[in-house]
Hexose transporter 2
Amino acid sequence: MRFFGRKDAVAVPAEKDGSPIDTPLGTTARNSSISPAEKPAIVQNADVSEPPATWEAVIMGAIASIGGFMFGYESGQISGFLQMSDFLDRFGKNGEFSAVRQGSIVALLCAGTLVGCLASGDICDRIGRRYTISASAFFYIIGVIIETTSDKEWVQFAMGRFTAGLGIGALSTSVPMYQSESVPPKIRGAIVASYQLLITLGIWTAYMVNYRTSAAYSNSAQWRIPNGLSALWAIILGTAILFMPESPRFAYRKGKIEEARRTMAKLVKGGEAHGPYVDRQIREIQEKQEAEEDGGEHHWWEIFVIPSIRYRTILGMVLQAGQQLTGANFFFYYGTTIFLSTGISNSYITSIILGSVNVLATIAGLWIVKNCGRRLFWPFCSFATDPLSTKGAGGVLIAFTCIFITAFATTWGPLVWAITGEIYPARYRSACLAIATASNWLFNFLISFFTTFITDKIDYFYGLVFAGCTFALFFIVYFFVPESKDRSMEEIDTMFVLGIPPRKSAAWKIEDVGPEGMSGIATDKTHFAANGRDIKKQEGNGNLMVHDEKLYPENAGPSTV
Ligand SMILES: OC[C@H]1O[C@](O)(CO)[C@@H](O)[C@@H]1O
């Protein structure tokens, strides 16, 4: 695989057949779902700096983030349930859980999410981001009902977790997608990262509710109250999101240009649906879409074939898996149990402390995403000492765990969502995001299922596995993740297509592309125009050139950008 190779140059196919439709930039459009009459008149090269975002943009992002709260709440509650007397009596064997039973109850949520997020990519493209979010939230309630009504059968409870997981998984793809496609670039990183903040708040809230109900009740209300509350968050999200506008990028792709313009205008201060800022955004989206459509029919599996997309698909999968391989969930799922075993008397309180550190550090993480970018701080935090290898008194373990969680929550927690939300081009975004998110859930599942088996055998040395992974992740981030802070999604795509080396990416400017802007620099045309897998690329006169004899036989000579 070629990572950011300069050789995968920009391709500009020459005209083939039919008379091209003139667009404001002189780009050509074929097969467009948007008729020529609908094509927007666009101001060229206007000086358009990005205005500040409005409250509407923040509210839109925040409401979608409730999906993160549901994710955190559902995953955070299980740690406490495993210690509750009524839960143990009902679902354990002689008041205890075997490794298989405990692992299954914890991990079946992740198995469901894995399926849910893979299925949701296609649904997002069919019914839209907003309706997918709403439908997933309501579907999740079915899982909650199965869980809460479980009486003595642990399998029923575990199947409820699986069903709830389908909804949570679908949300974990559709929410970051909706956010990153909608909010203006300046706050995009922080808004998508706020999905992670809400995950941490969800975990924290679950700990607090568990703490109260475990002390207040001795019957099934101990776990049924926190469990049943999950449905409330789903109702709030499923309903509120319907009052939000659809992602403008999705609306544009469906030919609803005026709707896309109106939404974009609402999201920045002083924005006008036909003003220069929105014009520029629409121009970028339009150029990319036209270039994509020039490529003809495309299939989802191309995400593993087209070099610049394959790079991003693998990068997203590795980063999402890496987030889990830091080992954070060992504490969030088994925290209560671990601290009990070190002699700490009230392990619920310890979990609440860790949950609070997680929330506060994630707030700092949002600031870092917004102000320091994606590359500056992140790799170094991979080196934070892994606490699991610290066998010792409870206090020492807590201290190291807090350092670890701070490092995780300021970097790996929020940044992975921000990056995967913004690196994919429109055509492949839902497929790539679904697969990247599935990789998070796959490793989440593996870690949560096998943890008890592994710690039963190697005890605290388990931490060394995570420490080794985070060491490797440092190099992956440093060498393969480009800086995408404050760039539009279309600009980021161009950066990948051009193969800007990640270490130089922070200094790269879109103006370097030349007077034609992004025209012609699109993933589809470049690497994989309609089965043109054997597309030829050449360089000459300092320009990137290409000719594809298969696609454009009448044009034997290379064209230049
Ligand atoms: O904050 C910790 C939580 O964040 C996640 O890694 C998701 O980004 C979860 O898997 C974990 O429970």
Notes: Residues 75, 196, 199-200, 323, 328-329, 332, 358, 413, 444 surround beta-D-fructofuranose (CB under 6 Å). Residues 1-46, 522-561 have pLDDT under 50 and may be disordered. The chain has 20 helices and five strands.
